[in-house]
């Protein structure tokens, strides 16, 4: 077999096309940034960049957790509701602590509140993993169920009302809660520093640890991974618990930024997380994806959302556009896989000549 019989497209053109497809997320980020710089007034102003970076951070946290889940061959539809529930837990603890009855209560400082909220997020992730691994519930159905349960629990925690004025109490050391969402270090918002830490940790796990290799192996072929000695159940527990952890962080940050907690917070956030992961090159079939690409994808979604708002585009049209972005990302991902297969065949044919 010769190279000419494998494909009518020259190998050089195929390689160039493959390179463009792999860099599609970065190219998309440049294009949307240039577009809104031209058509949205004050898009690159310092104030708007700070606000936009905070929005991007929220989406990126969830997208990082979602990336691990999707790479492992699953999906997590519950992260938006985890954000809402964890925000409400944080708000309740800041305002009331834990009521013991008879006028007694236990109050907590900011660090203790954050740790308790994170435990809640991780626990919900563990429930998702239990449903999927032990009860053999499909990931879509399992996380859809916890989506409703967590959202309902958030509503029940306050009868649908907001927990306002989360300024904390200096006497209990909870007055620093606001700093998480409003503070900065060296002029950079705290949430961005948190994103850097979580992003570096996630990238290290994915690229440098056996756990990362196991996550890719489970997503590529779960049965083969299990036969090779990979502890599939533990891997799935990790990815869903990590996703819950990321959701808890976002719940804390939003309630701190707003100095209030509302049970509807995080509604549809899971869609933005999925969009960022897919746009960043994560395959919905599992087994493929990178944390760096996901973070760039989160920037694309963030820039797109804020730019459309600044241009006065209706929120309804924003939803339509985000849906089209997801569809386009999946279509391009399929095209990339076809081109990769073509290039592989060309290389095999060249070696066989």
TrEMBL record:
<feature type="transmembrane region" description="Helical">
    <location>
        <begin position="81"/>
        <end position="98"/>
    </location>
</feature>
<feature type="transmembrane region" description="Helical">
    <location>
        <begin position="291"/>
        <end position="309"/>
    </location>
</feature>
<keyword id="KW-0472">Membrane</keyword>
<keyword id="KW-0813">Transport</keyword>
<keyword id="KW-0997">Cell inner membrane</keyword>
<keyword id="KW-1003">Cell membrane</keyword>
<keyword id="KW-0812">Transmembrane</keyword>
<feature type="transmembrane region" description="Helical">
    <location>
        <begin position="26"/>
        <end position="44"/>
    </location>
</feature>
<dbReference type="Pfam" id="PF02653">
    <property type="entry name" value="BPD_transp_2"/>
</dbReference>
<dbReference type="InterPro" id="IPR001851">
    <property type="entry name" value="ABC_transp_permease"/>
</dbReference>
<dbReference type="GO" id="GO:0022857">
    <property type="term" value="F:transmembrane transporter activity"/>
</dbReference>
<feature type="transmembrane region" description="Helical">
    <location>
        <begin position="237"/>
        <end position="260"/>
    </location>
</feature>
<feature type="transmembrane region" description="Helical">
    <location>
        <begin position="56"/>
        <end position="75"/>
    </location>
</feature>
<keyword id="KW-1133">Transmembrane helix</keyword>
<feature type="transmembrane region" description="Helical">
    <location>
        <begin position="110"/>
        <end position="131"/>
    </location>
</feature>
<feature type="transmembrane region" description="Helical">
    <location>
        <begin position="185"/>
        <end position="207"/>
    </location>
</feature>
<protein>
    <submittedName>
        <fullName>Erythritol transport system permease protein</fullName>
    </submittedName>
</protein>
<dbReference type="GO" id="GO:0005886">
    <property type="term" value="C:plasma membrane"/>
</dbReference>
């Amino acid at each position: 077999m010769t190279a000419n019989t494998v494909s009518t497209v020259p190998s050089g053109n195929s390689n160039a096309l493959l390179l463009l497809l792999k860099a599609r997320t970065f190219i998309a980020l440049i294009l949307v940034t240039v577009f809104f710089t031209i058509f949205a007034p004050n898009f690159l102003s310092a104030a708007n960049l700070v606000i936009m970076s905070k929005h991007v951070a929220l989406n990126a946290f969830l997208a990082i957790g979602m990336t691990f889940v999707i790479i492992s061959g699953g999906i997590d539809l519950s992260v938006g509701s985890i954000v809402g529930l964890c925000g409400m837990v944080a708000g309740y603890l800041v305002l009331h602590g834990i009521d013991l009855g008879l006028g007694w209560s236990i109050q907590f400082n900011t660090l203790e509140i954050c740790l308790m909220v994170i435990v809640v997020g991780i626990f919900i992730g563990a429930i998702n993993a239990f449903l999927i691994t032990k009860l053999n519930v499909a990931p879509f159905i399992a996380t859809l169920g916890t989506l409703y349960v967590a959202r309902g629990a958030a509503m029940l925690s306050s009868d649908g009302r907001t927990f306002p004025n989360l300024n904390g109490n200096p006497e209990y050391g909870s007055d620093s809660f606001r700093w998480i969402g409003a503070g900065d270090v060296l002029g950079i918002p705290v949430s961005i520093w948190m994103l850097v830490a979580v992003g570096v940790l996630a990238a290290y796990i994915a690229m440098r640890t056996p756990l990362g290799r196991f996550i890719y192996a489970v997503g590529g072929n779960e049965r083969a991974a299990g036969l090779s000695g990979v502890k599939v159940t533990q891997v799935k527990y990790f990815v869903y618990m990590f996703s819950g952890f990321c959701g808890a962080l976002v719940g804390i940050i939003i309630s701190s930024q707003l100095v209030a907690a509302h049970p509807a917070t995080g509604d549809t956030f899971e869609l933005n997380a999925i969009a960022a992961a897919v746009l960043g090159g994560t395959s919905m079939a599992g087994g493929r994806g990178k944390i760096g690409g996901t973070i760039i994808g989160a920037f694309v979604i963030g820039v797109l959302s804020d730019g459309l708002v600044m241009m006065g585009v209706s929120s309804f049209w924003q939803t339509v556009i985000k849906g089209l972005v997801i569809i386009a990302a999946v279509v391009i991902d399929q095209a990339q896989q076809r081109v990769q297969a073509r290039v592989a065949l060309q290389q095999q044919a060249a070696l066989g000549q």
